[in-house]
Every structure is written in structure tokens, then in C-alpha cells.
Amino acid sequence: MYYNMLYYTQKLRNNDKHRKVKKVITMRTTKTNGEARNIDKICVTTEGLQDLLDCGRPSAVEVGTLAKARVEIGRRVLWNVSKVQSYIDRLAEEQNKQDE
């Protein structure tokens, strides 16, 4: 869980002095749908692409870019799962042909 420390000054009632007060604010965690698999989705976020490919962020972005699967909606960046799957399938077929 992420904690954010908020500092603010509070004016004391009887005199003009101020004191620094610390208050802890807890933020709600982002809800994830653990049951839904990324492979069943049309588009995924970069983190979803990382989970789908089981690799780090730079590798996931590289594969998604090479697959031409990047979809920008406003400021959000999503990745088309079917394009990534077909790209990976083409890579596997090419490697199998080279191995024969």
C-alpha cells in the first residue's frame, strides 16, 4: 500500500505561532481483475503487455513497436494483443525454418 505524507501548518488558537503537523493519507490500491487473462483482451496497457510476454518494460515496448501494435487513445498507450501474437508467431516460424 502506498502512503503519502502530507505536511501542513496549523495555526495555534491562542497565539500567532504555527506548528508543523504531519498527517498520513492512505491511497486506495488500483483494482486489478486477476481472473481476466490478458490474452482474452483486445488491447492491454504496457504493464499488461509485460505480463503477457513475461519480460521487462523495455523488451515489451520493443516487441510491441516491432509488431506495430501501439494504439494511442488520448494520452493512454495501449497495445493490440492480436498483432503482438501474430508477430510472435511469425518470429517462431522463421526460427523454425532456420533451424531445419
Notes on the structure:
The chain has about 100 residues and is of the alpha+beta class. The protein is built from 3 helices and 5 strands. The protein has helices spanning about 45-55, 55-65, 80-100, and strands spanning about 5-10, 20-25, 45, 70-75, 75-80. Strand 1 and strand 2 form a beta hairpin. Helix 1 crosses helix 2. The longest helix has 19 residues, at about 80-100. It is elongated. The termini are far apart. The mean pLDDT is about 80.
The tally of helices reads: 3
Mean pLDDT: 79
Placed side by side, the strands forming the largest sheet appear as: 3-5-4
- Report on the biggest sheet: 3 strands, antiparallel
Which descriptor suits the 3D outline? elongated
Number of strands: 5
- Measured by DSSP, the beta-strand proportion falls in 25-35%
- Report the end-to-end length measured between terminal Cα atoms: 51 Å
Into which percent range does the helicity of residues fall? 25-40%
Helix-strand pattern, N to C? EEEHHEEH
Radius of gyration: 24 Å
Helix-and-strand structural type: alpha+beta
Low-confidence segments, ≥5 residues, pLDDT <50?
A: none
Annotation keywords:
100 residues, alpha+beta, two-stranded antiparallel sheet, elongated
Task: Describe the structure concisely.
The chain is α+β, with helices and mostly antiparallel strands.
